[in-house]
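Limitations
The structure tokens in this dataset are predictions for the assembled complex, not deposited experimental models. Users should treat interface geometry with appropriate caution, especially where small molecules or nucleic acid strands are included. An illustrative entry is reproduced here so readers can see what is and is not provided.
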Amino acid sequence: MNLEEKTIASQKIFSGKIVNLRVDTVLLPNGKRGAREIVEHSGAVAIVALDEENNIYLVRQYRKAAQKIMLEIPAGTLNQGEDPLAAAKRELREEIGARAGHWEKICSYYSSPGFCTEELTVYLAAGLTAGNPNPDPDEFLEVTKMPLSQAFDLVRRNEIMDGKSIIGIQYAYWGRQDERPES
Amino acid sequence: MNLEEKTIASQKIFSGKIVNLRVDTVLLPNGKRGAREIVEHSGAVAIVALDEENNIYLVRQYRKAAQKIMLEIPAGTLNQGEDPLAAAKRELREEIGARAGHWEKICSYYSSPGFCTEELTVYLAAGLTAGNPNPDPDEFLEVTKMPLSQAFDLVRRNEIMDGKSIIGIQYAYWGRQDERPES
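Predicted assembly:
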């Protein structure tokens, strides 16, 4: 079966600061027409940031969409044309005020491929040197650090409820004992 | 610091089949006003479905937003007022044509809490009995199964690029040896 859907029309609905929205009319594999609501997002990066004592840095911030204060790994949206690793280094400096001695890509993934173009790249940053955070003027967040095992426990108890943070913390806690080539 | 953002106005932009879009004007912690673009989504479920031989069921489908054919764990959107576990059982029947002898909640999480209300609940379903899939008329997908270790290898090689699938497969591969209370 050819699963692809050819776009035959595209209607722009909204153009914003964080997202755009369009509705595509597509030709389905059965020859019929269908509508696909597509949220456009420029992509993001997230960082599992570990110091020499295996503490992880987390940020606490209010998330309007979830209507709650959430604990997450540091993250941010890509600037226009920005390389993901450069963005991750920038976000780590801005949110945590730190630089890392070792960078490793964990994965890239789509947060919600059914309707959203957002692709996130998650990095592991180790060997952190502390500094002073310098967040954007419209970002309000609290930085905290804790042993990685404690953050993992928050994932297991489902108190950390952010997708990128769950992926990154599961990887850092379970996956680092396995050998893998650095990238 | 009080991190919460009080909504002082809300503008509906779009009301669709999968998402709605609104822009909220909020009072920031520093007393200034800010805009929050919010994509509303009714929530979803995803299932790590394992048979008695530790094979995992996956579905391959074209994702317009990602512009590629993706390999994912079975998943679907919640119907209005639907209980997540009931939705997961329904999706497993529809997409895979199977029932499971054991259900366990892995976690609930927000796919993109910075701008989207979507909350996903991921389940582990074990002891599958095979059957015949019965997908929605506008869903075009291919069902495949493979050893869990092979699916995990696709996660490690970043060939599986879907967030919920990465979370679920990481958990099933790494986490099941640990004792945990069933829920």
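Some entries come with short summary sentences. For this one: The beta strands of chain B are 6-15, 19-27, 33-41, 44-50, 55-63, 68-72, 75-77, 99-110, 119-129, 141-147.
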